[in-house]
Specification:
The protein is mainly β. The protein contains four helices and 40 strands.
């Protein structure tokens, strides 16, 4: 007869073996024909390494309509196409928002959609930003006709805090039916007021009639030089929000919309010259990083991180703030869970000066020497989530706080139940996440992508250029979770316990007591193992100097992305992009500040020797 510990161990093994398989996935290849050409590749800041250009995707509350937004190949005009949520084919013709420069966020309604974009103001507009810099704007369309247009920046918007523009939104748009409000969270640069010349971010709320609401929960300026945004709706303001900033932290900032100690520090991250490792996707990212569990008040967040070691005081920020060195050269995938929009499960990241370990609180999904990027998450139900990322097994990471390059090793899809991995991740070579991950009416999670040969080994185009390839077809992929792991585990556990109880008459009191001790010991052992694995033994530690090379109030990032071995050059400039950016000497930094003139000269000399990536569409 099997003892209870053996039965429970067997049950646990079965649960661990469950997970996603090829049968969990269904592809709808080239199902959506576009009316206009679309360039699916977006160059990253400074490195020009390729990112998927986001195609926002949304489903109406009644499940009858889906919409996809995409930027025209000319990089002006955003097109919104209605999509059949069952076949993922086009329904009717696209609606075009003239002048839009970015498909920055999309909400589907039963009678239409709302779009977050940015656009230049007409020539001669009073108090407009210089050089036709775009400003953020929200559009609402009902049955194909414009219902309202609301500016979220530019002339007349929070003037007392300074006027702002958004050359790149890199944010998101959400809607809460219970609150009756849209929420938009996006990157800004101020062109008047106390923050003039600097980058930050803004949270704005808009009513269903298009009125820009002036609420205490709004923010004209939040995280300095924002490097990543995660945003999700809640039943009331403030909505759930997370930001990555240029001082070395990722914050749950639902309650303060900023980057101070009143928020919850999710993670310590090395930041160099305003960059933070593209934790939420970098350019054309900041979507599907934070997801609410279906029918619950809890959330899950995914990002990529190099980990954190050797914490030291961030003297510019002051007491209570620290900076860190990278633990690894490549980035790994991590998740955090929240019991509600303002409460993180577990401990927040350490702020102890001198601590060797600055990431013991992190729940790692991957570990090792590969580089992971393009991490996203969506929820199947109230307990199960899908975490996904792309991977380079043998990365070349030239820049300490930016992306890596190398041969694309696959897209990975990991089932997670209540914060724990279930089974092994599903690896795919021909399916990518290039737009919002949406939970459909049938419980599947679906998203758009372009059917192409994806490469991460070179810059996306020549210095200052863009890839020439375009497409007029969008594919979709849908993932199902299979058996509900929470219910199947409960059934298995119940069966095991029932079997043990039914045979208890054959067990002596002393044996029963021994069995209880064994179960408790096994539980404690599993818990201890989980804690120990927070920092996997397979992590290769990156050595770096613990002293700060310099602290400067402004930097100029030189874009040296013309070759496959591009490096980051820095030089001091009078044109500030952030309030304070720390440049720190490190063995992992590819170019020291003193080498900047040489690097810049090399860039000018080699500009004609650019490497281009040709993307193949299938």
């Amino acid at each position: 007869m099997l003892s209870l510990p053996i039965i429970l161990s067997f049950t646990t093994s079965l649960a661990a073996a469950a997970g996603l398989s090829d049968a969990s996935l269904k592809n709808y290849v080239n199902s959506l024909e576009l009316d206009y050409s679309f360039n699916p590749v977006k160059e990253a800041y400074w490195t020009s390494l390729p990112h998927h250009r986001r195609t926002p995707f949304a489903l109406s509350p009644d499940g009858s309509r889906a919409f996809l937004a995409y930027l025209d190949n000319s990089e002006t005009d955003v097109h919104i196409q209605r999509v059949d949520p069952k076949t993922f084919a086009a329904v009717g013709s696209a609606v075009t928002v003239k002048g839009g420069k970015e498909a920055g966020g999309l909400v589907a309604h039963n009678d239409g959609f709302a779009l977050l974009t940015n656009e230049a103001l007409p020539s001669g507009t009073s108090s407009a930003p210089a050089d036709s810099t775009p400003v953020p704007v929200l559009y609402r369309y009902t049955e194909g006709e414009q219902t309202f247009k609301t500016f979220l920046g530019g002339p007349g918007v929070h003037e007392s805090d300074g006027l702002s523009a958004s050359p790149d939104l890199n944010g998101d748009l959400v809607y809460s039916e219970k609150a009756g409000l849209y929420g938009a969270y996006f990157v800004v640069t101020d062109y008047s007021g106390w923050a003039e010349g600097h980058f930050g971010d803004s949270v704005q709320y808009i009513s269903t009639n298009g009125s820009l609401e002036t609420l205490p929960e709004s923010s004209a300026w939040g995280c300095s030089h924002n490097t990543g945004i995660a945003f999700e709706a809640a039943d009331a303001v403030p909505f759930a929000s997370i930001c990555a900033e240029d001082q070395g932290d990722i914050w749950l900032n639902t309650n303060n919309r900023g980057m101070d100690l009143s928020g919850t520090k999710i993670s310590n991250e090395n930041t160099t010259n305003g960059a933070g490792g593209e934790s939420m996707g970098g350019m054309s990212g900041s979507y599907s990083n934070l997801a609410r569990y279906q029918g619950e008040d809890s959330y899950i967040f995914s990002w990529v991180s190099r980990g954190a070691v050797d914490l030291y005081e961030n003297s510019w920020m002051g007491k209570g703030y620290v900076a860190s060195a990278n633990r690894t050269n490549g980035r790994n995938v991590a998740i955090a869970t929240f019991s509600d929009k303002q409460t993180m499960d577990g401990e927040q990241a350490s702020s102890v000066v001198g601590a060797k370990d600055g990431d013991s609180q992190v729940n790692w999904i991957t570990s090792g020497t590969a580089d992971c990027s393009n991490a996203h998450v969506a929820t199947f139900d109230g307990a199960n989530a899908l975490v996904t990322w792309e991977q380079i097994d043998e990365p070349q990471c030239n820049n300490i706080a930016m992306g890596c390059q190398g041969e694309f090793s696959g897209s990975y899809f990991q089932l997670v139940n209540k914060g724990s991995k279930v089974g092994e991740p599903l690896k795919l070579m021909d399916t990518y996440v290039a737009g919002d991950m949406v939970t459909m009416d049938d419980g599947r999670i679906c998203w758009p992508y372009v059917n192409m040969t994806w490469r991460l080994d070179q810059a996306a185009g020549s210095y200052g250029g863009l890839p020439s390839s375009t497409t007029k077809q969008i594919s979709f992929a849908c993932m199902s979770s299979g058996n509900d792991t929470s219910s199947s585990s409960a059934v298995a556990s119940s069966t095991a316990i029932s079997s043990a109880i039914s045979s208890s008459s054959a067990v002596s009191p002393s044996t029963a007591a021994s069995t209880q001790v064994e179960v408790t010991a096994a539980t404690v052992s599993t818990s201890s193992s989980a804690v120990a694995s927070k920092v996997p033994a397979s992590f290769p530690v990156v050595s770096s100097s613990s002293t700060m090379a310099s602290s400067i109030s402004s930097v100029k990032i030189a874009k040296i992305a013309h070759s496959s071995t591009s490096s980051l050059a820095t030089s001091v400039s009078a044109s500030a992009t952030t309030f304070s950016t720390h440049v720190r000497a490190s063995s992992t930094s590819s170019v020291a500040a003193k080498e900047a003139p040489t690097a810049l000269a090399d860039a000018a000399e080699n500009k004609g020797e650019d490497c281009k990536v040709q993307y193949i569409y299938e």
